[in-house]
# Entry
Amino acid sequence: MQLLSNKLNDVNISATARIHNLLLQKKYLGEKIINLSVGEPDFNTPKNVQEAAHDAISKGKTRYTATDGSIELKEAIIDKFMKENSLSYQKSEIIVCSGGKQVIFNALLATLNKEDEVVVPSPYWVSYPDIVKLCGAKVAFIQTKLENSFKITPRQLEKALNKKTKWLVLNSPSNPTGSVYTKEELTRLAEIIERFPNVNIVSDDIYEHIIYQDLPFYNIVQVNPSLKHRTLLVNGVSKSYAMTGWRIGFGAANSSLVKGMITIQSQSTSNPCSISQCAAVEALKNTNQFIQQNKIIYQTRRDIMINIFSKSKYIEVSNPMGAFYALPSIQKLIGKVSSAGKKIENDSDFVFELLNETGVAVVPGSAFGMKNTFRISYAISDTLLEEACHIIVKFANNLV
Ligand SMILES: Cc1ncc(COP(=O)(O)O)c(C=O)c1O
# Structure
């Protein structure tokens, strides 16, 4: 009898696992590795947030909280939405989960049926399609282009939405491209969505605070409040506050969706870690300076990367306006041969040869739905980043 359920057909374990295994093997052998494949800040969690966690432990805040999060954290989240996004939510419209990923998982599991479709712009964060598949529904991709900074157009959206569409996923700033939708672009997308009343929106705003050149952040609800009742805002402390391991994400949505999400969470993980919740309250209230400093650091790194790649004849890159990723194209290198005699047939070959020959680790773009690209995460020191980008350019130049 087959042990694993059919739900797992077609669902992938993290696409980065193979790269990671090779990387660990090389590290074990004592080889120098520069790792540009990780999707998390390289900073430590701010000191005041660490202290809030110590304090929580010593004050005995170590017990179950309400499934959907403590009142203190919900109040801090409501204040955040009001202060930063001018959006008003009630406690019944907020859920705290173990990471932004669980917010999305809960919402999709609570709502999707077999016949439903979820529209996902491609390239995409790897988990969106696999969560949809785990929920037994179908994914419909909208393929974007580097020339459009990997953003969907209103016309593409109009073609993709239909009676079966239950959700549209928007992610700005984006993982893996770093693209950011402007207020005007979102306004035009919202006009299309208004014509499809059955469509709900996941607005994944997890990189909200990592945005450059003073470009203001907008989500679809801010530009069109009439979509508020059918939008799930996804956010959390992982990326903005360098707290990936603390596992706190939160969602804001209409209270009936939130109720469904709470039911699912109550039968799976229950409340998120009580100590992490106390730390998240501090992060949301008292870390503005940390965010402002990091923006400048990330922007400098982005500029280092773009400067080096823009001088390459073979690597094309669109200038990321947020998050800490870019998705350069290696289309011009397909068919070439490495100095070790390996033919580069696709982005995976490029990434494996790059790691094998130079010790620089990136992720194949096909894992994110964009073949013949690679994803680079520049959440790494300026010096290492500069060294790695030069190595990548030299590796590309040496392919024949
Ligand atoms: C676009 C996007 N959304 C959501 C998440 C989930 O974040 P968390 O670590 O809070 O689950 C990530 C993490 O990589 C992400 O890149």
